[in-house]
Design goal:
The complex is a heterodimer of chains A (348) and B (347).
Chain A: E1 8-23, E2 29-45, E3 49-53, H1 60-67, E4 75-80, E5 83-84, H2 90-96, E6 100-103, H3 117-127, H4 133-146, H5 163-175, E7 181-185, H6 193-210, E8 213-218, H7 221-227, E9 230-235, E10 238-244, H8 245-250, H9 255-263, E11 313-314, E12 320-321, H10 334-337
Parallel strand pairs in A: 3-8, 3-9, 6-7, 7-8
Antiparallel strand pairs in A: 1-2, 1-4, 4-5, 9-10, 10-12, 11-12
Chain B: E1 6-17, E2 20-32, E3 37-41, H1 48-55, E4 64-73, E5 76-77, H2 83-89, E6 94-97, H3 111-123, H4 127-140, H5 146-149, H6 159-171, E7 177-181, H7 189-206, E8 209-214, H8 217-223, E9 226-231, E10 234-240, H9 241-246, H10 251-259, E11 307-311, E12 314-317, H11 327-345
Parallel strand pairs in B: 3-8, 3-9, 6-7, 7-8
Antiparallel strand pairs in B: 1-2, 1-4, 4-5, 9-10, 10-12, 11-12
The chains are: A alpha/beta (348), B alpha/beta (347).
């Protein structure tokens, strides 16, 4: 859990990323667009961890990549320490990348198999003119120790390491340039549960030690809950709910969040929960449903939900939700989501 | 008790590679009763998938080979059957569903043709009847508009729908055993909930016994009656679902329970299992978990621990429950076990 001093490090406003859908071979014309990310607004304070959860295709990875400008946004702005990332020139962007780093999901494909671990971690040091020669070697060894590997690992190649160790190498590479913000895109989902716990602990220790700020992207709710201060829930390119982590779990206000939480299998056979099973699949982001994008699967949908796009509003204490129906008017305690077998139906 | 439906005894499947012999499954033993759901839990490389492929006799030889053991099913040892006899059982009496619904369907055949193929082969139905059966099965797995979609190709379906097709195919010949290898791992959590619900319903309806292979303790807790925990190719703990979570005995099981982040309580730090899973080439003697075990004793690194029946219907492969452990060591272990249990209570 990070400690924040309230200052906003990254401020994202109305972020949009559309991918054109084209038809034709030589004379391509655009016939539509994939609405990968469509109007995201959120901020991250210095030293905090913001979790971004959602199912595959909801746009969470795109969000991370667009903020780093690994892909160009098609709309909106992202202010990092007050400067709009999307307006930076090439050289300024390169300098900014010292402050923003990424950890990738797949520790197998995100490390160059032909480079030694020392070269992989040392490369950003050279690119940003931070260290060369002996100084670089010393710094690489130091970084390896910081992430729980040994200095002698610097001469080895990625294939000699297990998944968890490779993810540590990816973390060391991200740390090399002393970044302020780290975007972690599903950093533990390829790992076994015992190794996952090691890496989560490491990320938390590093945050404390170096005052890091995380945007933590994942689909696993219990992992996100464990590491985040606040959590944003995405559905089809939009944030539907954003709140303090404990608040979100205890008092979900969006029907999608409620269903998502209830769908997670809990490792406790004595616990029987009321499970909300959403009908159908996530619709295609090429032609997202009109109005509220969740209305096709929502158990509480009203006729107006099909027409009016819901506004994202603060309902108090920094709990934001994009649902005008808000079927759960009263404070829903954990027991409501989490009920014993012979109780009243979940929907009231 | 009646004869178990499927009984695996001391199954050993090795792979002969350039680096040496990989003992992927090294003494797997369990029994599966009619209508039961047995969970097999373990991390990658623990041998849980290879064991299932061994039961189906789908191990590519070379490099793999089933070197020892028995797989008793309906009074016969599957390992002694001819290929011809095995074909009559595979997909018919014992069916399997895989983790990757994307890659386990044939992309150039419609899903109807794929389901009908198994039915024609095993049930000797004619083409038309088999096609009708395919539609019926798709309806059973709640495929919307089954009659139209039966003519679609796999790429026209989402991941969750493909897994429904796989389940329809697996159940089309009404098998008595279904091996499900991580059937929901590739799916999103809301889709996973749909599929788990479906499997529960179908089991009630068809009475199929399920071997559920997974690394997800949540899925196990939801679906299974009994659980085998595997580590480095061996079963290390076996008991019913309640005791797996309420009274686990093996230090590895405790470690697993500690590693899962809690949903509803804030915990500052997880207690991971330190170190890495062992390489299955050249496993040192003794218990494979020794280097990562907080309770390791001298004897653990010397010889294989015995399977101890710690109470009726609950066994653990660990020296802590033998006279090799001192009272003090047993006491410390019991305390640690209680701590692991206390943690899961709050989930």
């Amino acid at each position: 859990m990070g400690t924040t001093n309230g200052e906003i490090l990254l401020d994202v406003r109305n972020l949009q990323k559309l991918y054109p859908v084209t038809k034709g071979f030589i004379f391509q014309k655009q016939v539509g667009a994939v609405h990968a990310v469509d109007g995201l607004t959120f901020h991250i304070r210095r030293g905090e961890t913001l979790g971004l959860v959602g199912e595959s295709g909801c746009g969470k990875t795109t969000t991370g990549r667009v903020i780093l400008r690994l892909q160009e946004a098609t709309g909106g702005e992202a202010l990092f320490e007050g400067r709009d990332i999307f307006k930076l020139g090439k050289e300024e962007l390169r300098r900014l990348r010292r402050d923003m780093q990424i950890i990738f999901q797949d520790p197998y494909s995100s490390l160059n198999p032909r480079m030694t671990v020392g070269d992989i971690i040392g490369e950003p040091l050279e690119i940003h003119n931070l260290a060369r020669g002996k100084e670089k070697v010393r710094r690489v060894q130091e970084l390896l120790e910081v992430v729980g590997l040994s200095p002698y690992h610097a001469n080895r190649y990625p294939h000699e390491f297990s998944g968890g160790q490779r993810q540590r190498i990816g973390i060391a590479r991200a740390l090399a340039v002393n970044p302020k913000l780290i975007i972690a895109d599903e950093p533990v989902s390829a790992l076994d549960v015992s190794i996952q716990a090691q890496v989560l602990n490491l990320l938390q220790e590093l945050q404390k030690e170096f005052g890091l700020t995380y945007l933590f992207i994942a689909h696993d709710l219990s992992v996100v809950k464990h590491i985040s201060d606040r959590i944003a829930v995405m559905y089809l390119g939009k944030i539907v709910e954003l709140a303090d982590a404990d608040e979100l779990f205890a008092n979900p206000q969006h029907p999608y969040t409620e269903a998502l939480l209830s769908a997670v299998p809990i490792p406790n056979p004595e616990m029987r929960r009321e499970r909300i099973i959403l009908p159908g699949d996530v619709p295609s982001p090429v032609n997202p449903p009109s109005g509220c994008r969740f209305h096709t699967r929502c158990l509480y949908a009203q006729p107006s939900c099909r027409i009016d796009e819901p506004e994202f509003v603060d309902i108090g204490n920094g709990h934001w939700v994009a649902c005008p129906v808000r079927p759960f008017k009263t404070q829903r305690s954990r027991a409501a989501v989490y009920r014993e077998p012979a109780s009243a139906p979940a929907t009231s | 008790m009646a004869e178990p439906l499927l009984s695996v005894r001391n199954l050993k499947t090795y792979f002969y590679t350039d680096e040496g012999v990989v003992k992927a499954v090294d003494g797997m033993t369990y029994e599966l009763n009619k209508g039961e759901t047995l969970g097999i839990v373990g991390e990658s490389g623990s041998g849980k998938s290879v064991h299932a492929l061994s039961v189906m006799r789908l191990i590519a030889t070379p490099p793999g080979k089933i070197v020892d053991g028995q797989i008793m099913f309906e009074g016969r040892d599957l390992l002694k059957l001819s290929d011809e006899e095995m074909r009559k059982i595979r997909g018919n009496r014992i069916a399997m569903i895989f983790q990757e619904p994307m890659t386990s369907l044939n992309p150039v055949l419609t899903i109807g043709e794929q389901i009908a193929e198994a039915v024609i082969l095993h049930q000797r139905l004619d083409k038309k009847a088999a096609w009708e059966r395919a539609i019926e099965m798709l309806e059973r797995v709640k495929m919307p508009a089954a009659r139209q979609r039966v003519k679609d190709y796999p790429h026209q379906f989402s991941g969750g729908m493909r897994q429904r097709v796989m389940i329809a195919m697996a159940l089309s010949c009404n098998p008595s055993v279904l091996l499900a290898d991580e059937p929901t791992t590739a799916l999103d959590v809301t889709i996973q909930a749909q599929i788990l619900e479906l499997m529960r319903e179908l089991q009630r309806e068809f009475g199929t016994a399920i071997v559920m292979i997974t690394h997800n303790l949540g899925v196990v807790a939801e679906l299974c009656d009994n659980v085998v925990v595997m580590y480095a190719g061996r079963p290390i703990e076996e008991t019913d679902i309640k005791r797996t979570f309420a009274d686990p005995r093996h230090p590895y099981t405790w470690g697993l329970l500690h590693s899962v982040p809690k949903m509803y309580e804030r915990s500052e730090r997880l207690i991971p299992i330190e170190g890495q899973p062992p390489s299955l080439v050249d496993l040192p003697p003794g218990c494979a978990f020794t280097p990562r075990c907080p309770f390791a004793m001298e004897v653990c690194a010397q010889a294989d621990p015995p399977i101890v029946e710690v109470e009726p219907g609950h066994s653990a492969r660990c020296y802590l429950y033998t006279d090799k452990a001192t009272e003090k060591e047993k006491q410390a272990a019991a305390t640690a076990g209680l701590a692991a249990v206390a943690r899961t209570k709050g989930m």
